[in-house]
Design brief:
Helices cover 9% and strands 46% of the residues. It is mainly beta and 457 residues long.
Length: 457
């Protein structure tokens, strides 16, 4: 999840609150807003969503349904879509055709994943974020209902977790959106400071070279911007986020670049107006940014993180949520908006960033959508859920793929908890580590983030 709940919390609940201090039960409104947003979007109710001031990975809200010439052909479980838009700034246009896929995968190279509970971390957070760096696991999360309290924990084995004095360093008011390595064995925690009773947010990055002590980076401001994600390699770090204009109508993707994690320079992506909910990765030596552009996909690439070119990609009515490099492919995870059944989870996979294949995720019900994903030992491990706050039977569904085309849906695992949830997953020592925040039947986030280790077999 890329914070659609957090942004809705700011724009709707705090803006209209009679007091500048948020209620301790705002997490319920956050979860409800996320549910209502996805349902409304699937029905194409863009203007109603804008009136609410909702976002669209967090953030995938509202946009005019894109028009494109689309031909859908069913073949061996693979959906082939053809269409083309003019390339911008001399960039090559993208096409969804089968030529990049000689033989679509129909299964993965592993038989499944065996999950077992390893720990309950004493962290209360609507959205946990977990990663690995320097041979350790790190988990960060924010409780929006308690003065925006952010805490960080670390573990060497996924079983024993120790608090890191992160909250003392940042004080209150920082909301974490993501945690990732800095390309040199250190950590980046990105997000936003929440001030003025939630009426003002500012992009914020914290850095640690050892995972023990953190320093606040100097981030060039972009008023109202929130940072969603970061991707790094030694000497080149890029953070990406977005903001709304003061009227809450138009949106713009923001980008920050740094060579040392200490000072971050703000940049504007070409042709990024109207986009929101970006994600970023490094694939084949280039940075790649994707975002939701009015229920279509916008893609940028850069060889150095500073000079960007927008692709003429045309992926039809596809809302991207996450971008992952896997082997020699780049894979987009997202959904197709459907006015009858709700969001339908699909993926897009490419060998060259120009030709893309589309695939559905097999037998998982259409109402399910991607919640989190990571590449573990060469396999995409995708965590899915219904996203319905009142669904007390909801249990994480796991799908795996070696290429983002052929998916195997794992049987529902009773080891994983039931109930509405947000999750984060990462690779660690050849295994999948899954962090889950659950909500009770009333929609209240439960104390403690449960950690599960998945052994690939």
């Amino acid at each position: 999840m890329k914070g659609e709940g957090f942004e809705a919390w700011l724009w709707k609940r705090w803006r209209d609150a009679p007091s500048p201090e948020p209620s301790s039960r705002l997490w319920l409104a956050v979860a409800s807003d996320r549910r209502d947003h996805d349902q409304a979007r699937a029905r194409g109710h863009r203007m109603a969503n804008l009136a609410w001031g909702l976002p669209g990975r967090r953030v995938r809200l509202a946009g005019l349904v894109g028009l494109a010439l689309v031909v859908v052909v069913a073949a061996t479980g693979l959906v082939i879509v053809t269409g083309r838009l003019p390339a911008q700034n001399g960039a090559k246009a993208s096409t969804l055709v089968p030529s990049a896929v000689s033989s679509p995968s129909v299964r993965t190279s592993i038989a499944g994943i065996s999950w077992h509970a390893s720990a309950t971390v004493p962290l209360t957070a609507q959205e946990p974020h977990v990663t690995s760096a320097g041979g350790r696991l790190f988990m960060v999360g924010t409780n929006w209902g308690e003065g925006t309290k952010t805490e960080l924990f670390s573990s060497a084995d996924a079983v024993n977790w120790q608090p890191v004095s992160f909250d003392a360093a940042i004080g209150s008011g920082f909301s974490a959106a993501a945690i990732s390595d800095d390309g040199s064995g250190g950590l980046l925690v990105v997000g936003q400071d929440v001030v003025n009773g939630g009426h003002t947010v500012s992009p914020t990055i914290w850095h640690s070279s050892d995972g023990l002590t953190f320093a606040r980076a100097q981030v060039e401001d972009s008023p109202g911007a929130m940072i969603d994600a970061a991707a790094s390699r030694a000497g080149e770090m890029v953070a990406v986020g977005w903001h709304r204009d003061p009227n809450g109508i138009s949106t713009m993707v923001d980008l920050w670049f740094s060579t040392d994690a200490v000072s971050w320079k703000h940049q504007v992506l070409p042709g990024a107006s109207g986009c929101m909910g970006p994600d970023i990765t490094i694939w084949k030596g280039e940075f790649m940014v994707v975002c939701d552009d009015a229920e279509k996909t916008a893609v940028w690439a850069s060889v150095n993180g500073r000079d960007w070119q927008k692709s003429g990609v045309n992926l039809g009515e596809f809302v991207p949520k996450e971008v992952l490099p896997v082997g020699d492919r780049v894979v987009l995870l997202g959904y197709l908006p459907d006015m009858n059944v709700g969001p339908i989870p699909v993926s897009r996979s490419s060998l060259d960033g120009l030709t893309w294949a589309e695939a559905h995720t097999g037998a998982v019900e259409p109402a399910f959508r991607f919640n989190a994903a990571a590449v573990v030992d060469g396999e995409i491990v995708a965590v899915m859920g219904s996203g319905q706050v009142d669904d007390t039977t909801d249990r994480p569904r796991i799908s795996i793929s070696i290429d983002g085309i052929g998916w195997t849906d794992m049987p529902t695992d009773d080891a994983l908890p039931a109930g509405y949830f947000n999750a984060s997953v990462t690779a660690f020592d050849g295994r999948a580590v899954l962090a889950i925040s659950n909500y009770d039947a009333t929609g209240a986030v439960m104390a403690g983030v449960r950690v599960f280790v998945g052994d690939l077999r």
